[in-house]
Nucleotidyl transferase
Amino acid sequence: MKAMILAAGRGERMRPLTDNTPKPLLRAGSKRLIEYLIESLATAGFTELVINHAYLGEQVEQMLGDGEHYGIQIRYSPEGEEGLETGGGIFQALPLLGEEPFLVLNGDIWTDYPFARARRAPTGLAHLILVDNPPYYPQGDFALRGERVAAEGAPRLTFSGMGIYRPELFAHCHPGRFPLAPLLREAMGQGSVSGEYYRGQWWDVGTPARLQHLEQWLQASRRAPCPYRF
């Protein structure tokens, strides 16, 4: 199974840190955010990785290269200065991802999720990893009913930005800029999205404050209970 890291976001909420640096290249502790993900994927047995990029994307390629340093092969899907949103970015990268299911990760998260567990093809069109609702997003995204994800219902959980998708999810899409959420909601209506509730560490590093909290926690102890839920 191949993996894809989404690194094309402009990071407006992270300014001024992202004025000259792509958000996934920001440091937390001793490494850049995207490096934690790459190393975790390599440890879990992933050998092929696709990374999309847009704003300041040349820095991503210059920093990570072909992935040899991390023990993984990296290929890139450039999207120009503005980017294609999540759905459009994945769709453009499909020729690099192939015909089998693939794992997709947001490039601005930190997690201890065991990615070896993600190397399973979904029973439907997608499999989403859901987490507790953080304080800044109490309404959550989706409901988990057994192993099926529903667009409506309660209790609700937050989509972690980690999912496994079949290329068929994008069968009726066209090149260009479009979001992923409508595709997932349509598939949920067909009963074709499975999910799991992950209770481990997960951080959405979307603002300077959250980045600072993560860095403080990493410096203190990688294994200590997380004092923040951001």
About this structure: The longest helix spans residues 85-97. Residues 2-220 form a domain with the Spore Coat Polysaccharide Biosynthesis Protein SpsA; Chain A fold (CATH 3.90.550.10). The chain has five helices and 13 strands. The mean pLDDT is 93.
